[in-house]
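Module 6 notes. Inverse folding takes a fixed backbone as the condition and produces residue identities as the prediction. Think of it as a translation problem where the source language is geometry and the target language is the twenty amino acids. Below is one complete input and output pair. Work through it position by position during the lab.
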């Protein structure tokens, strides 16, 4: 257990029961995120203590890039780590600074399991998989923009969508022109909030607020994402290609 975890636990043990009650009451309010971060650090043996977690983290570049452990087999059939590093396909969208796609893995149809398959991300990526295919990615969403924020010079809505489609082939084609951010794909998407918070909006303004650890199952539905906080949000997605009925 790391030093951070031990000190935190020691302080809790030294408090009276009444102090513990008052502490919980405080965390029910604005300090709820700090409690979650502290508990996460304890569960990880203090490993998260060095990661900027407060709402002061304004830029995703302040946060460590997630690594991907890729397994396979050697020629004798023994399980091996083929790599443990940041994925070879990281896509940053210049038109929307802070929007970053970590393209982790994809398959088509029934995947082979020889363990000798090359890393598919070395060939590039795509927006969404076809029927039966899968896509695994992390997306880092930029913080909520301050009032009066403007995109980089020369950037328009159309040029932003074009850049998205150029870097993640076909991605911009899924977004609606008359409802910015709204998009639909022929996939089931399993999503989880890894870090930060996110608002998911469906048709007619229906919304749900997601916090760290909350999950989503998108059944090919029309939706958009909005980051409500002044800090980046990291989400993980597994998309499975389907056929619209």
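Target side of the pair, the amino acids:
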């Amino acid at each position: 257990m790391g030093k951070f975890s031990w000190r935190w636990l020691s302080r809790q043990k030294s408090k009276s029961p009444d102090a513990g009650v008052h502490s919980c009451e405080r965390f029910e309010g604005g300090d709820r995120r700090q409690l979650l971060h502290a508990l996460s650090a304890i569960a990880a043996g203090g490993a998260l203590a060095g990661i900027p977690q407060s709402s002061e983290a304004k830029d995703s570049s302040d946060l460590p890039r997630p690594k991907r452990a890729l397994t396979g087999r050697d020629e004798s059939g023994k399980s091996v780590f083929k790599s443990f590093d940041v994925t070879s396909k990281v896509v940053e969208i210049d038109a929307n600074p802070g929007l970053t796609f970590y393209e982790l893995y994809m398959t088509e149809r029934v995947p082979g399991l020889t363990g000798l398959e090359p890393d598919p991300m070395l060939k590039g990526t795509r927006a969404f998989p076809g029927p039966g295919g899968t896509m695994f990615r992390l997306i880092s969403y930029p913080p909520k923009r301050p009032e009066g924020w403007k995109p980089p010079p020369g950037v328009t809505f159309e040029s932003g969508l074009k850049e998205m489609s150029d870097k993640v082939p076909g991605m911009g084609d899924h977004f609606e022109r008359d409802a910015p951010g709204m998009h639909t794909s022929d996939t089931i998407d399993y999503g989880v909030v890894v870090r930060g918070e996110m608002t998911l909006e469906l048709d007619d303004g229906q919304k749900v607020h997601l916090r760290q650890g909350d999950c989503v199952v998108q059944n090919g539905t029309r939706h958009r994402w909005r980051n409500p906080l002044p800090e980046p949000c990291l989400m993980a997605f597994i998309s499975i290609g389907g056929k619209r009925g």
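Reference fact for the lab report: Residues 60-241 form a domain with the Jelly Rolls fold (CATH 2.60.120.10).
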